Amino acid sequence: MKFIYTLLFFLFVSNFLFAQETTIPKPAKVKHAEPLYLDLMRDLGARKGEAEFNVGYGTGRFKNKVEHNAFIEYEWAVANRLGLEVEVPVLFAKDNVGQRTNHIEGLKLGTQYTFLVDEKHQTSLAIGYVHEMEFGRSNPTVRNTPLFDGFVSSPFFIAAKNFNQISTLIYTGPEFEYHFKKKEMETNFVLNANVHYMVPNSSHYIGIENDMRIEHGHLEYIMRPQMKLALSPNFAVGLVCGVPIKSKEFQMDFMTRLIWEPKF
Length: 264
Fold this sequence. Notes:
The protein is mainly β and 264 residues long.
């Protein structure tokens, strides 16, 4: 009888705990369309345990060179509304005189916290920080080449709001670029404004990313039409092209991004 009583008590407690766990509501989250060129650390309002792998490739044409870029990144939510990201970008470039440059550009680490999720008004607000260590370019004629040339420090603010199926998002903040050899700090400013149409009952969207930078006192404005196609519930592809509105060197680019969200 003691065994039966113990078993019944165990089943009762297990059922109670399971019922409590299944009735805990998930944190609020508003679905926004993410920019595909300037990627976020995680979805705004991300829930703990969510993760995403990205692999991308792009090619860009400038007045004096052609660049090919590749990257791999992993982002995950370590807690509700708190996302982290690790990215490794790679550059393959060739200028007009045939000189090639192939190297890993650096190691990029980022974090993002969504401090406001308002389902009623379909609004999300977030702050974050990106720190990129820039690898030095190896030179066989120079001994003891430093591992890092410098770093880029980028605090940012994000505001996003939906108007029915129209998603709007602004990403903005300063960039502080420090060069170890020159011992100089350069300050730039980034404003990324996005408008996307989200296809109802799906994860597809199409829109425009307006990528604006103020660097050395000059404005560079690249418009990036783009689309995201969800091929399955956890796999998607993003396509982006860049068209210069105001730029001294940039002519055109194209990028594709493969997105996989594993289900843990």
